[in-house]
Amino acid sequence: MLSASIDRLVPFDGRPYAHAAVALVVLALVAWATNWLMRHVLLRVLGRVLQRLTGGGREALHDHGVLRRLANIVPAVVVWASVQYMPDLAPEVRVVVGNVALAFLAVAIALALSHLLDAVNDWYLRTRDRAHERPIKGYVQMAKIVVFAIAAVVAVATLVDRSPWLLLSGFGALSAVLLLVFKDSILSLVASIQLSTNDMVRVGDWIEMPALDANGHVIDMALNTVKVQNWDKTITTIPTYRLMSESFRNWRGMQESGARRIKRALLIDQSSVRFLDASERDALRAISLIDDYLERKCEELAEHNERLEAAGRHPVNTRRVTNLGTFRAYACAYLRAHPRVDHDLMCMMRQLEPGPTGLPLEVYCFTVDTGLADFEATQADIFDHLLAVLPAFDLRLYQQPGGADVAAFLEGRGARVGEA
């Protein structure tokens, strides 16, 4: 008996308070010694056992200090069990010390479980090939919330010496408050399950959410937040539930397909569109990409016009080759011959509705480059060539007058006035 041992070592006759104080000090020393023993003996024994684990389990348990947290449980059990056999302590003191030990035990178990859950998440990331596609971090965080909530209820109930069920029954009146406080966590949990089940977002996906200025790769998915590293290296934190309540664009499909779309228009000055005469058609036939086109087109138009003349129709009804149509045929042939354009997907040049800024002639094709730098280089190469070849077809781009245009106009007008 711990009390009898104290009586033999320190005979405090008639001084029960001093006796009780010494007993508590000795109990604290025993708890400390037990904790030290567990840390140096238990950790070594369990460490040798864990050496047999493979697949990252041993490293995960060691990195998150799960065994160190388990060592804190034994001293709490020793204090709770020993204080029951100290008759010199007042019943109230014995109850308080025992309850504190039990509350500490609940917190220690919760901390150990929390670190164990972190180790499970770490092990999952190390051993599963698709762990980044289907992360479990949100579920781990939700489990930790449940563990700490239960530990808090048990600890508070133990300290006030009441049944945990009595405290839980009182939470019914606070349910509305709890729902309000944990609204984001509840919404995010449901959203996290939906995102994972429907495979809508993965770590590493490139997503774009203009409403939150997010445009970059997903680097982390937690219970409440999804972190996106933007192209300018800034981090945008998005509440998980907003990915379900608002629209966003995921570029994963483009990356997995191995092709990326070009959809950009050239604004043609409509006043430069005209018919080509025979000499101009012959000159353009020197371009190998449209030689076959011009030959087929001329034969088709000649046959059509002969039928019109035979029917006695007015010559205005005849069809002729235009510089814009010829350029459009050349651009299509150029795209189909380009080595960086995916020829298995749609490739075309299309006219859009004319507007006050000219006639949009849109390039619509897919490149074999999905990376941003390679894609932009291919797109720039295509449009560099198309812009440079436009004068060969006697076409002009529409461009609003700039300072140089105004200066040139004024200079020419001044020269004319001077000559006059």
TrEMBL record:
Q: Which keywords does this chain's UniProt record carry?
A: Cell inner membrane, Cell membrane, Membrane, Stress response, Transmembrane, Transmembrane helix
Can you tell me where the transmembrane regions are? 17-38, 95-117, 138-159, 165-182
* Pfam family for this entry, one: MS_channel_2nd
The record gives the membrane topology as: Multi-pass membrane protein
* Superkingdom of origin organism: Bacteria
Q: PANTHER family given for it?
A: MINICONDUCTANCE MECHANOSENSITIVE CHANNEL YBDG
Q: Which InterPro entries match?
A: LSM_dom_sf, MscS_beta-dom_sf, MscS_channel_2nd, YbdG
For this chain's UniProt record, which GO biological process terms are given? cellular response to osmotic stress
Q: Which GO terms describe its cellular component?
A: plasma membrane
GO MF entries:
mechanosensitive monoatomic ion channel activity
Q: Where in the cell is it found?
A: Cell inner membrane
Q: What broad class describes the main subcellular location of this protein?
A: membrane
Name listed for the protein in its UniProt record = Mechanosensing system component YbdG
Q: Which species does this protein come from?
A: Cognatilysobacter bugurensis
